[in-house]
Amino acid sequence: MTPPTTPLRGGSVTWACTSGFSPVFIFPFTPGEYYGVANLHEFQTLMYRPLYWYGSGGQPTVDYERSLAEPPQWSEDGLTATITVKPYKWSNGETVNADNVMLWMHLLEAEKDSFGGYTPGFFPDNLAGYEKVAEDKVSFTFDRAYSHNWVLMNQFSTITPLPRAWDRTGDDRPADATHDPAQASAVYAYLRACNDERKGWDTSPVWSVVNGPWKLSSYTIDGVSGEAVLVPNESYSGTDKPYLDEFRLVPTASDTEQYEMLRRGLDALDGVQIGFLPFDEVTEPAEDPQLGGPNPLGEHYELVPQLTYKIHYFPINFNNPTVAGKIFKQLYFRQALQSCLDSRGAIRDVYKGYGYPTTGPIPALPDSPLLSPAAHGDPYPFDVDAARRFLTENGWDTSSTPGTCVREGTGPGEAGEGIPAGTPLRFSMRYAKGHETLTEVMRKFAADAARAGIEIVLTEVEASVLVLEDTTCTPGPDSPCLWEFSDWNGGWGYGPGFYPTGEALYSTGSSVNFGSYSDPKADELIARTVVSDDLEDLYAYQDYIAQQVPVIWMPNFPFRLLEVAKNLQGVAPINPFGLINPEDWHYVGEVR
User: Fold this and answer.
1) pLDDT category, 368, cuts 50, 70, 90?
2) Residues 48, 212: contact at Cβ < 8 Å?
3) CA 592 to CA 587: how far, in whole Å?
4) CA-to-CA distance for 6 and 3, rounded, in angstroms?
5) Using omega within 30 degrees of 0 as the cis cutoff, is the peptide bond preceding 124 cis?
6) Sign of dihedral through CA atoms 64, 67, 73, 79?
7) Do the record's keywords include Transferase (predicted)?
8) CA-based nearest residue to 365, from 561, 580, 557
9) What is the pLDDT of residues 375-389, one digit of tens each?
10) Cα first-last separation, the chain
11) How far from chain centre, in Å, is Cα 262?
C-alpha cells in the first residue's frame, strides 16, 4: 500500500529541546550570553521575523520569499544599499515598514554593546549613515565599498524590524525612538525589563505583537528552563501559514532523559514528535554523517541528521588575570593543548562515525569552495609526544604531572612573559552537564593531557549556567574573569548569515569572542575578507587562525541526530543555518 502523502491540517508537535538549552530570552535584541540557537533560531524567529530569511531548500542562500524585504539595490559606487520592506502585517494591525527598521537601528546604535551580533568596527560602526527614504524604504551608506555578499549575509542578517507598539519606556508611556535616537536607550531598558520578567511573557502586551507565523500561547518556568507553547498567528501575511494547531518546546535535563522520552513512544504521556538520538545510543556506526546509519528507534521515527554549517571548539580565557592567562597567550602552549585532543578517536569511538574534524574556523561539511585547501589537513594532529616537546622546548619540565616552569623569561626556549619559575601546568575545565558523549571526550582529553604534563581538573556544570558565567569578560571588581577552559558541547554556527569571515569570533572586542582572543594580524586578515570576494583572502585568514589555535578545535558532528515521527513531513531538507520552519510541518495519514 502506498503511504499517504496529502498534508493534513491540525495537530500538535512537541519538540524536545537540546539538553540544558530551552528558550529563556524572547527579546530579539539578544545579548551575547543568550545569543544561541535555542533562543534565536528555534524560538524568536518563529514570532519575530528577521529582515532576511537565510536557508532555502537545504541550500545556504537567501530565501527571499520568506524574507520581509526585497533584495538590496546598490548604488553605482557600491557604497549605498536601499532596502524595500514588504507590507507584511503585525498581529495588532500595524504594517511592517521602514520605521520598524529605523527603530531597530536606533536601538542598535545606542545599545550595541548589549547585542550579541555586534562586533566593534563592523555594523553599525561601518556605516556613514542610514535613513528612511520612503514609507517602505531604508538606505544604508557604508564608509567604504564592502563585499556585497558579505553585507547581505553577515551585516543585514543582524536586523530584526521592531513594531511601533514596542516604542515605549513604560506600560503606559509611549516614546518615539523610531524618530529620535536619544530615546533609544530608555526604550531598550523597558524592553529588556519586559524580557527579564519571564513569568509574564505569555500575557505581555509587548511580546504578543508578532509578524511571524507563530505567537506565544503559554510559557512555563521550571528553574532556569522554560517550556513554550506556540500557536499560529492568524494575522500572518506570508503564504507559508502553519498546518499545525500547536508547536510545543519542552526542556530536557539530559541526553538520557531525552532518549527515554523517545523510547517510550509517540503515545506516551510525555511523547515527542521530534527529539534527538544521543550519540551514545547509536547502535551501528554511520558511513556518512550527512546520511546517517541504522536507527534504533526506527519503529516510530525517521533519523534525520541535522548537519548545519558550524564549527566545534571550546574557548580558553585569554583575559584570565592570573598566571593562567599569561600561559594561554603562549602559542606553544595552545599547540600542545590541541595536540592532546584525539579528535579522530572520538569520531570513531564516541560519535560512531557521525563526526568529522574541525581543523580551523570554516566547517569541513557541507563541502564548500570557501574552505581553504590547507584545511583538508590537520595542523596539530593528536600526538602526546609532540605536545610534550612543545612544552619542554619552551621552559617546562614535564617529567611529572603537572609539569612545572623551569626556565622563566621571554627569550628562546623560555616560558614567556609573566610566567615565574615553579608555575604548575594545572588548569580547570568546566563542561556542560548531561551529555555522556562530551563527558567521555573530556575524560579522555584530560587523561591524554596528563601524559604530556598538563593537569586538567574537570567539573560538570549546567549548560545554561555555563554559558552565562564562562563568557567574554574583562577583569574588574564586578567581574573576576577567572574561568579557564569551558566547553558547552558546541561552538559556532554560521547562521543566519553565511559568509564565514570571522569578525564575530576572532576580532578584538567582539562580544561572542568568548575567550577574548586578540591578535593584530588576525584583525588585519579579517578586515581584508569583508571588503574582498577573493577567496585567497579568505584562505589566508583561515589558515592563520587554524595555526594560531585561538580556541581548541573539537570534533564536529551533526548538530543533532533528529528523530522525527514517521507521519510528520516537512522537516527535511535541513536548514544549514539551524533555523526551523514548523509552519511547513504537517501530518499525513493521521493527525496527532
Assistant:
1) confident
2) yes
3) 8
4) 10
5) yes
6) negative
7) no
8) 557
9) 888 899 999 999 999
10) 21
11) 25
Phi, psi of 242 (to 5 degrees): -60, 140
- The torsion angle over the Cα atoms of residues 582, 60, 77 and 130, rounded to 10 degrees, is 30
Tens-digit pLDDT profile for residues 41-89: 999 999 999 999 999 888 888 999 999 999 999 999 999 999 999 999 9
Sign of CA dihedral 213, 215, 219, 224: positive
| Cα–Cα distance measured from residue 69 to residue 137, given in angstroms and rounded to the nearest whole number | 9
Residues 165, 211: Cα–Cα separation, whole Å = 12
Sheet of 127-134: strand order equals: 73-74, 80-84, 137-142, 127-134
Q: Could you tell me which of 483, 489, 463, 456 has the C-alpha nearest to residue 471?
A: 483
Q: How would residue 1 be classed by pLDDT, with cut points 50, 70 and 90?
A: very low
Q: What's the predicted TM-score (pTM) here?
A: 0.83
Please give the Cα distance from 18 to 465 (Å, whole number): 15
d(CA 69, CA 443): 48
**Beta pairing class for 455-461 and 127-134:** unpaired
Peptide bond into 402 cis (omega under 30): yes
Q: Which of helix, strand or coil describes residue 465?
A: helix
Give, for 442, the enclosing helix (H) or strand (E). Answer: helix 436-451
The amino acid that residue 114 corresponds to is S
* Average pLDDT rounded to a whole number, residues 6-32: 94
